[in-house]
User: What shape does this take?
Amino acid sequence: MTQVDAITWDVVVVGGGNAALCAAIEAAETGARVVMLEAAPKPYRGGNSRHTRNFRCMHEGPLSVLTGTYGEDEYFDDLIRVTKGKTDEDLARMTIRDSETCLPWMERHGVAFQPSLSGTLSLSRTNAFFLGGGKALVNAYYNTAEDLGVTVLYEAEVRHVTVTEGRFQGLDARIGGKDLRIEGRALVLASGGFQADIDWLADAWGPAARNFLIRGTPYNRGVVLRDMLDQGADSVGDPTQCHAVAIDGRSPKFDGGIVTRLDCVPFSVVVNRDGERFYDEGEDVWPKRYAIWGRLVAAQPEQVAYSVIDAKSLNLFMPSVFPPESADTIEGLAQKLGLPGNKLRETIDAFNAACRSGDFHPTELDGLATEGLTPPKTNWARPITEPPFYGYSLRPGVTFTYLGLKVDRTARVSAHGARLHNIWAAGEIMAGSILGEGYLAGFGMTIGTVFGRIAGQEAAAHVA
Amino acid sequence: MSLDITPTLTATEEARRQVEICNACRYCEGYCAVFPAAFAERSFSDGDITQLASLCHNCRGCYYACQYTEPHEFALNLPAALAEVRVESWARFAWPGAFARLFQTHGVALAAALVLGTALIFAAIRMLGTGAGDGFYAYLSHSAMVAIFAPAFLFPLLALAIGTRRYWHEVGGAAVTLADLRAALVDAGRMRNLSGGAADGCNYEKGDRYSVARKHAHNAVVWGFLLCFAATSSGTILHYVLDMPAPYPFFSLPKLLGVPGGILLTLGAAGLAMLKLRADPALGAVAAWGGEMAFVILLGLTGLTGLALYAATGTGLVAPLLALHLGTVLAFFLTLPYSKMAHAAYRLAALTRDAQLKRRAG
Assistant: This one.
């Protein structure tokens, strides 16, 4: 291989996930000489993209695996609902419109789609699922990039980007254990958020963040993001916020991914470490509440909670990756979960006494609510009476952070309000420009694909 | 906790550990029949795991797509886990079982069977050869051939039927309907489970790149084998029904079926062997690699020696080539219920059972 530090690259791409790959592929297709710097070792390449599963896509009629139509306005309304208006309408609408041409582009570059997965039929119109998930997409793009002559370096940690008078000149990186200087004429930053830097997370959120689990890659440490912010790059997104959902408390600290999801909460009673309830478990269907529960659990002592069900609810939700704790008595279950037995008994008894009779419908808001209980459970409230009893621990699992680089319609990064000459950004590192709050399933991959492609095209045009 | 990885897990327990993780993920649903079948369940009996294992065609799409392969602590390698269960279960079902443990995993044993088979035919030619007939029958009489091959053909069928019946019992199969059988044969004929769903083939010899080479090579072997079988059957009918004994001219059913069949079988087996050399052995049953490779070579040799024998017509090579060809065929048939060839029966059974379960689920 050529000495990577001996030549001036046309386009240097920092990152190795979906956005970085889309940028590298677009740039390489124009004939540019492209190098990608991926911080992770090869088996863990792909950042958080390797954990994703679908792409939210606008379409004016059936498209690939997508059914029906999903127009710009409906898509935008869905986005506004989750971000509560905290979104840049111009960038958001552009992203949405571009998504429609992205899907055929993805297929042309090796991505295979499959019909909506079992248990996700509600997404069959809006979200195109990757066959095999995000890692298969990442593999397809790496193969395409390789065929186009892109040089990919693994275990390549970028330490500092040299920006002089608004112009990128080169960067310092530790690659395979060696400190190297990489020179280039254009730079695309697609290195994700900072959620894997627990210290940064704790600075932003408070010490409770040390008990959070990180659902994705341990390599999103935000080194480049911080370096750019330190050099005056304009930022967007709330620096104190991260997107966290309630997941299985026994999950690995990093990289647990999709399987750590737990869907039992709506059919359960949730208590904290002291055996006390703290929120309405039946407020809404779980996909609309798991993010709220991430915050709720984060606010509890030791950032942990316990979801308790009985035998009649066990098969109402997707199987968990770890089997639940189980016991024939509430006290026995409390002991296994490390909860005060008397207190849990008291909480369950009070809950059971507040349940009333009525029709139970697990798949819709059934209005089966408790009476005279604080906090109430407003749907799916059935007494916990039928042994064996099951318990799962819950912890906040961080998906991504909002703080990022501010970009314009061409994915260009700016500093002190002025566009930098030759630096673009794509993916999670700039997603805060569009997603100010909340999350819409599959939209992260849409932002990454749309802006990755734009960044790659713009960077290539700059050096052409 | 089920995720504790201890070396004491049996093949079935290890596969169950992995399938339970898959069931919480489901990203691979579109690759093959294994995943929809698994995702219809919440817990997995030993029989369920056996059924999933025989459904798996080792296309490896799920391995390369998996976010939980090593070095991740979940350490998923589903193609290998299911391959281990397959090898174990087919040895368990085989009758008599000891032969399966021998021929499924030991290439040397298959080679020895080939040498023995050839030697047996040589001896038969020496002792029984009459020179009374035409063509091959000049070396070994028709009645001698029938005396050797009728039992060598019928015994493996019986043994395989017993094994398949045991399989069917373990996976809890119900009475077979014509519709189930038709669905299974269509799946097998199209090698649907080697096509990768929406992807373009398997992740076999090219790692995480898709390729249809294995599917095509396998199809060549299957159709080549069936053509050769049809050639032999047509010869039998010509001999007994129409009283037209061999040798047959080129424009006759046995030759018109047999020559293309032999070519397909030889090329297909050569392709499968080359692909197997390039694929990662760690994604299959590692201990069975040698036995599987020897089987592919043996299968290819049945075609190649047949073609060579035809090409050598009228030369002095006919006698040794006839012994080699008939010896290869004999070794192939006698080891059939215990070699990789048994997979044809177990997979058909698995596909039939899958069709049953799908029909029931509606």
Remarks:
- The mean pLDDT of chain A is 95.
- The interface with chain B takes residues 43-44, 50-51, 53, 65, 112-115, 117-119, 129-136, 139, 142-143, 250, 252, 255, 257-259, 261, 315, 318-323 of chain A (CB under 8 Å).
- Residues 273 and 301 of chain A are 7 Å apart (CA to CA).
- Chain A has two domains: 8-203+214-238+402-463, 245-397.
